[in-house]
Amino acid sequence: AQSVTQPDIHITVSEGASLELRCNYSYGATPYLFWYVQSPGQGLQLLLKYFSGDTLVQGIKGFEAEFKRSQSSFNLRKPSVHWSDAAEYFCAVGPPDFGNEKLTFGTGTRLTIIP
Amino acid sequence: SQTIHQWPATLVQPVGSPLSLECTVEGTSNPNLYWYRQAAGRGLQLLFYSVGIGQISSEVPQNLSASRPQDRQFILSSKKLLLSDSGFYLCAWSLLAGVQETQYFGPGTRLLVL
User: Fold this and answer.
1) What is the 3 state secondary structure string of chain A?
2) Which terminus of chain B, N or C, has fewer Cβ atoms within 10 Å?
């Protein structure tokens, strides 16, 4: 069965600092990979996704993620965070053989931005 | 463009009362539809998904049920709510258009069972 691990429950960074959120997955083949962001009390918004091809994926709001097969990781990065980036971030994986009928989500990383 | 609606946005219900949460999608046809529950600190749990009218797959045995009476309508129900049903319920949709599918989420319904 596939699984997703987000080892950091809560991260605090200063505004303007760089950010990396970790995501590790367990799956027999290369899955589809996603990052979503959730502002308090809101639904989830897709930041970016990886299906195949270039392992460095660009997303919205200045985020990017890199797929590393050897490490089974799909870490999310941003060079300079803004106060509006404070939110909860979820990594998700979906099996490629069934499209993404069933996504498995990590438990999320809550990001706090300090001035 | 496609939009997804959920209502109500917030709901407070007593234990043992019935539940009906509604999700509708606009701007697309024959979407896949999903219900998730999000509990604090536990990520998202897939409850049900549907690939067509009247077709419901349940992922987790529980006190809830789902129905899809129309192509773009997905309803989450319960006959008798439990305290453990409290949480944030999210509806999502996706299109089976080749292999590059993505799920898009609604704004959610926060349910508090007292």
Assistant:
1) CCEEECCCCEEEEECCCCEEECCEEECCCCCEEEEEEECCCCCEEEEEEECCCCCEEECHHHCEEEEEHHHCEEEEEECCCCHHHCEEEEEEEECCEEEECCCEECCCEEEEEEC
2) N
Q: Nearest CA of chain B to the CA of A68: how many Å?
A: 20
Nearest to B107 among A43, A94, A108 (CB): A43
Rg for chain A (alpha carbons), in Å?
Answer: 14
Contact with chain B for residue A107, Cβ under 8 A: yes
> What pLDDT does residue B62 have?
79
Percent of chain B topping pLDDT 70: 93
Residue A100 has pLDDT above 80, yes or no: no
